[in-house]
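hey can u check if this looks right to u? its 422 residues, i copy pasted from the old doc so theres a chance i mangled smth
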Amino acid sequence: MHGGVIEARRGTTSPYGPTGLAGRPPGPRPAVETTVAGLVDALLHSRTELLTALTRVATAQAATDEVFRSMRALSGAPWELLRNSPRRLGRLATFLPSNNLLYSYVLFGVIPSLYTDEVRIRPSARVAAAAMAVHEILGPHLRGLGGGRIVMAPTSQREFLADCARSDAVVFTGQPDNGEAVAARLPGDALLLTFGSGPNPLVIGPEADVDAACRTVLDARLYNSGQDCLCTDIVFVHRSLAPALVPRLADALAGIEVGDRRDPATRVAPLVYPDAVEEAAGFLAAHRDFVVRGGRVDLARHTVEPTLLHLPWQESFHPPEFFSPVVLTMAYDDPGQLVRWLHSAEETARGMYVSVFGEPALAGASRIATSVVCEERITFDAEDGNRPFGGYGPRAGAVRRGGPATGRPLLLSAEAGRGTRA
């Protein structure tokens, strides 16, 4: 599943041994385990404050999940550093994404600070206030525990690019074309990780259980109202199951109302991004003949009604990233159709994950084209903050140091560890 994890160098028992972290001069042993334990404790004790900050932009359900995922990633940090032996970085510059604020702060700020002298973070302008609130809650704990220095400020992109040019490594989260602009400003030896997105298709094969498949589709599509890069944008349903599954999905969506994101019972809330509402409205208008349930959009209130569309097979169709509660199903007859679709130029460029349920013809494959296969699991089940993330599509995630970008699953500590081994 995560074959991109870098093994520890032979003979290296710990990055905290007599020579310290890889590339770090000899000195006192860093108390990484103590720092991590203290931060996990701080997350637990600050949970109410963090949820208040996070529910400015996320549903309470997603925010709660984010807190626990963050604790899990922090708890795994000592293992991650031991396994990857990252070299010491002087400065890391991070473009924080506009969703998963706490989890991203941990993955791209807190954990890297354990082997970086300074981490500079630029929050997305769309959610800067919520991101700064997370930093103000956890930053003092990190400093008090002797952790690395993290500086977060809502600076302009132009100003932050100057910081990037002086950094050993840069984490960019956003549109791949914008990542190219960042790459053009970096010195040749700088490490750049670009995290994009992909459609993360979900396959419901002829041997899948229909009731379980219905729950699976909703879990994969409606996380944080659909506002997550791991949400699936298209569900391929074997034609033999479509007559049973599509009505079940329609009935399930009919029971989901748009509510207050702070309410723990709310699964779908008003969307954070006006452009996501507009794009959903445009897609639904263009495909209104295929709407099975829902379809109403209120631009003023930023709401998209939980909606189901069912399309006939179209090999040339490539879904947009909805970032909204739109469930799109498409019937297929033969798994060869799916393999050809995943090998298309569009999908090899943005291949992340493909989740497969009840399709024996695809069982046992670790990847198809550039998409990593999640067998009987959705992306949220497979994602692990201490292991490389994503697939091999260069527009979904890529790394570069001077030369051309290489698409592969990404983890900063693993990439910082490359070149430190014999």
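The CA atoms of residues 227 and 323 lie 4 Å apart.
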